[in-house]
Amino acid sequence: MSNEAAPFVLQHAIPNGLVATRWWWVRHAPVRDDGGCIYGQIDIGCDTSDRVVFEAVGKILPRGAVWYASHLKRTHQTAQAIWSAGFPGPEQLHHERAFAEQHLGEWQGLNRAAFMASRPAAVGSYWFAPIDDRAPGGESFLDLYNRVRSAIERINTEHAGKDVVAVAHGGTIKAAIGLALGNQPEKGLAFTIDNCSVTRLDHLAGRDHSGWRVPMVNQQPWIADASHNAMHQPAGPEIATASKLA
Question: What is the residue-averaged pLDDT of the chain?
Fold first, then answer.
């Protein structure tokens, strides 16, 4: 069966005088070899065995986009899985270190469940700590947010008016959402970002002002088939359940 798709067509008109740069964020495939531990920026591989998932993701991504990934191999493996499933890959995959996951310092390698049990519950936040709580020897979410924001702003200038596919991490995508919601990083932590899901954020820029539009968050185009539920892994501090596998 052919995996060809028609060229992407905007579903919502762009007002005259504005340039739209469309970001398509893809979270990496699930990590299976973390031993139930926090991994942050540990360079660990991921499970790309479910071709149906990557075929589905490829069907909603735009052709001819500029592609970015973090420097961590799980994002490269995920991008390659999308291309191997029939998506026409780009001439180049740009590696952007600013799109790496939050460096969780001394928390990396700790048992995830035990760590979260030792922390106060934060209603409305699906992350390891408040935005300004810096991991010992690592970063805070605000540190992550600031580096992600700077890279997005630079790429918006370099590739204005284009589609940008960015294969990244749960924290990175939450930071991007916080930026799109009016430079409010704490708001991004309220969103769940599943493995292999697609989040679309459009940057609209005019002569005197700019802003964001949020067409979709955490889209999972394979979700109608329950046999692919195992592609989910917690995108932060969540603990595995019968329906969400770690």
Answer: 88
